[in-house]
Amino acid sequence: MVAVRTPWLTDVVTVVTHFGDTIVATAITVALVLALLRRNRQVDAVMVGGAMASGFLLMSGLKLVFGRDRPPVPVRLVHEFTRSFPSGHAMMSAILVCVVGAVLVRVTGRLRPVVIAGLTLWTLAIGLSRVYLAAHWFTDVLAGWLLGVAWAAVWIAGSARFGRARGISGESGETVTR
């Protein structure tokens, strides 16, 4: 990645990487949770908020456990104080796009290919930006994506099971008589 760096591309990638930082992910999560609660979609709100909050704790714990150093400072274009493995930007963006996709499927009954492509490109761009800026090794980002998808899948499946067990419909969150 260092070999393909140009000033204009570095500027673009720096903007892209900020779309995956904790502040942006938290803002999107809070807005989505509040919107879901307003629409009486409590199970989905808990899924989104729970997946993101617990995912952040999991990612932070894994960084402490693995203690992997980041790429060397001379090539690194960002200042980071945490460890490298797994990439938090990649993991949290993967969790977020998966739970957003799940909510969209539950609300609309389907997910358009353009939405799938947009969500996928968003998390790919964020993860690759971390490699370009030498904030992470590629394996950190790959692990972040895989862990994020797996963690989101646990929350998506768990919330679906909880909703079915409680007789909560997928459309509006109201209770269904059995």
Mind sketching the topology for me?
Elements: H1 7-18, H2 22-38, H3 42-66, H4 88-108, H5 113-132, H6 138-165
Features:
6 helices; 69% helix; disordered C terminus; mainly alpha; 178 residues
Describe the protein in words:
The protein is mainly α. It contains six helices and no strands. The C terminus is likely disordered.
Radius of gyration: 18 Å
Distance between the termini: 57 Å
**Overall 3D shape:** globular
Task: Kindly state the percentage of residues in helix.
Answer: 55-70%
Number of helices, where a helix is a run of at least 4 consecutive DSSP H or I residues: 6
pLDDT below 50 for ≥5 consecutive residues: which ranges?
171-178
Structural class, judged by helices and strands? mainly alpha
Please give the largest β-sheet: none
Mean of pLDDT = 88
Q: What is the chain-wise order of helices and strands?
A: HHHHHH
Number of DSSP strands? 0
Strand content: under 5%
